[in-house]
Amino acid sequence: MVRPIIQYALDFGRVRLITRLRVTGFTLSQGFQVHFRSTANVTTETETMSASPEISTECATPMAVRLWDVFRQFLWLGCISFGGPAAHLGYFQRTFVQRLQWLSDGHYAQLVALAQFLPGPASSQVGFGIGVLRGGIAGGMTAFIAFTLPSFLLMLALASSLDLLLQYHWFPAAIHGLKLLAVIVVADATLSMAKTFCSTAFSRILMLLTAVALWLTPLPVWLLLILAAFCGWIYSRWQGKAPADSAMPAERQAQQAGPYQAGRLALLIGLMFWGGLYVFSGLNGSSPDGSAQALNVFAAFYQTGSLVFGGGHVVLPLVQQQFADQLSTEILLTGYGAAQLVPGPMFTFATFAGAELLPEAPFTGALLATLGVFLPGFILLLAFTPLWSHWLVKPGLNRALMGINAAVVGLLLATLVTPVASSSLLNGADIVFAVVGFIALRRKALNVIGLIPLALGFGLLAP
Q: Whole-model pTM?
């Protein structure tokens, strides 16, 4: 069944610009990369609605009912979705593709591929995209709020009571156990992403060079990501991989000219909005006294959210780089370890950090940090969606993305060594526990949820 690829909602569903594309075949490979083997057809809204009773029924459903459906489905998923972004995507596929049939497998694959290409929280971006399809921009925001709310409240509660908890002698020991859990999880994430994104000699070299650059030089992360994308593109040119033949009949080109031009306009507007906020955040984030005021918190986390490729694990090194003088490594790793305990997106680590940065107004700091770290990914998702199907067949883009992914793995590797392992592995017993836990996690003898009580118990009982 043909499902909508792009649906922009204006005035919450009254005026719609709908472009529908039909894709005849795709393959979803490891790492959620989609390779299309066909061209796209454009159909009018009238044709699609007459051919799809499901879409007609959906459009006849009142907006309030659709928004309530989005809220309750995502709130439930936000309460039970443990296991990180990969697990979230599995929950989404079973719930919204198989059970509720809100979108097709092909459309879901496109959303996942686009979220992997863009910076930001991949699983939350996919959830936002599903919400947009169901209820326009209001549906996307409803999906985000519902899916994020449980973990937001839990992380805010932890940050608000952290000073009180530190007065108990058992709490630092429990935190040490969570820091060991962080070592295991980051090591597992690094190895998993290395197997997915560093399968060639070139990508492995790029990964190691990125890690060494982060260890030895003060280069910012965003510059390293740009350099990695450029290296990937150069490697593609050097390999002599020309773009695939994209010739199509003149009639087909004329059919696609209108939607393509509209997509370029949407991309331009979205990038201008995203870039304007990025420049604004840069100006506000560089106050002379370096204090963590409300606008500075939002600005810093907006910049962080604009640079996060590879999931919530990458938030830790970026936040550590941004706030090295304001948040100790112990506090950062406490929040990171707690983010493993709660369901929902790991990006709510920003909730904890924002509350710690504004101790006089923890709710304000948590809210601004959370909005700041999520907003860039949502803006870019809306901006890039119209042209994404046209770009998937470009080999140069895939090579540039390969370079970025390799650099992200290097970023995780550098973070694993410093500060995660260096501040957590204090003696031989810690090293043994981390190694055994890592092996158990890799061999699927235990999952992260099963490791949590073991890590807490080891922290409390170890000498």
A: 0.64
